[in-house]
Amino acid sequence: MNTNLPKVMQPLGGHTLISHVIKTAQKNSKKITVVVGHQKDLLKEHIINID
Q1: pTM of the model as a whole
Q2: Which residue, 5, 26, 36, 45, could crosslink 9 as a Cys pair with Cβ 3.0–4.6 Å?
Q3: How far apart are CA 49 and CA 2, in angstroms?
C-alpha cells in the first residue's frame, strides 16, 4: 500500500474494509463499538457516513 490512508480505509469491492466490517456487524448487533487510534478524526467521519 502506497497511501496515507489507514489500513481500514483501503477500498475492497467498492467499499472500505471498515464499512464491510461494520455492515456485517450491524446484521447481528444493535450497538457497535469501534476502537480507533491514528487518524481517528478521518475514521470517525467515515464511520458516521456509512449507510
Answers
A1: 0.81
A2: 5
A3: 25
